[in-house]
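A further point concerns the way the authors explain their paired sequence and structure data. The central task, working out the structure tokens from the amino acid sequence alone, is never made concrete. I therefore recommend that a typical entry be quoted early in the introduction. An entry of this sort, consisting of the sequence and the corresponding backbone structure tokens, reads as follows:
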Amino acid sequence: MQELVSDQVNREVGELSAVLDLDDEKRARLEKILKQKKKLPAIPSMESDKSGQDRERAESTKSLEEELRALLSPEQFSQYQEYTEKKKALSGASSVDKELFELKYRLDLTEEQEAPVKEILREHTEKLQRLSLSTTPEDDTAPLERIQDYLDQKSAVDQDTARRVQPLLNASQYAGFVHYQEEKAAEVSILKKLLKEEAKATPPSP
């Protein structure tokens, strides 16, 4: 579970770093801030030093916005606010529109690029939906095996999508798209690892 949380942080860091054009130093500081925000609160002890608890509580309640305001330049912070507000407005939008929104910012897509990229993303989503249905057969295949099969086929669909989108992008944009896919693929790799560990821990059926 901790690996999945770490992967979520890496995705957020990658997204904001690309959108705000952060250098390596700011990217590292952003990662540290987000990891601190993801930590679960410790259970207070009756014997703990109260003043120490108060200091930790004060630090933990410092908002993410305060942290980012101190980290980013005024221009970057203004861009962060604009991006997050627009992203929040898309909370009820389709997954395709959300993905296109992020890629538009990350890759600086032109209006001419948006429509064909959106169409490829839509077809990508439909393929995954069909794949999800096709990997839920009414047979005795073990659930873990079905999930593993789905993840393997999903990787193939992702690769095909990258191949189709490449002619629409310049070299820099395509490199950014590949990096975006790699960030998302990291979560798949973690899921595969967890599945293998669970399979080893599960005793065979009699």
